[in-house]
Prior knowledge:
mainly alpha; Endonuclease III, domain 1; metal ion binding; glycosidase; iron; 13 helices; 4 iron, 4 sulfur cluster binding; Endonuclease Iii, domain 2; elongated; 2 domains; single chain
Amino acid sequence: MKRSDKADRIGEILDRLYPEPPIPLDHRNPYTLLVAVALSAQTTDKKVNQVTPALFDRASTPEEMAALDPDEILGLIREVGLAPTKARNLSTMAHQIVDAGGELIPTFEFLESLAGVGHKTAGVVMAASFGVPAFPVDTHIQRLAARWGLSNGTTVERTESDLKAVFPRETWNRRHLQIIYFGREHCPARRHDLTTCPICSWTATKKRIAQEAQG
């Protein structure tokens, strides 16, 4: 089966399971979404959502965040992974945004110029807050794309390119969220029997199924 045919069928399944997938990170505006996504690196969304209410009560705008001492930010986000680095980045990021006028500029170039913001984080904000077609790929989406035979990319950048090639542009913003939810509910990283998965069972190669059964 061609990748494009697989993608069409996968898209039908995902649309049926998750017709309107919500953003899993709680936020109040585009800026707080940017902060939440930046905090989610090497940390679960659940943990981020436990930490951000108190943080956003203190600072839900770049101006408010810039007014906080980095140590105060650290105290509010201490439970997330890499907290010291992220606290410094949030402070620097806030000052960068204030210096640029106080609002997020809806371009990848601007967002990726901010401290602690990579292409994936920028993509989430561009898609969710500004409606720009984007396909943010993290290691979880990369794993499923490989299982499903949609990409053999060894980098998230290559996987993103492969997925953009097989899914229609108008589906990208919901498709990446659908894949995240599908992975959590049906396609975990470990101890997953691919033969019982609604998608892996017919997309994965026999070699892949055998390899994961041994793992």
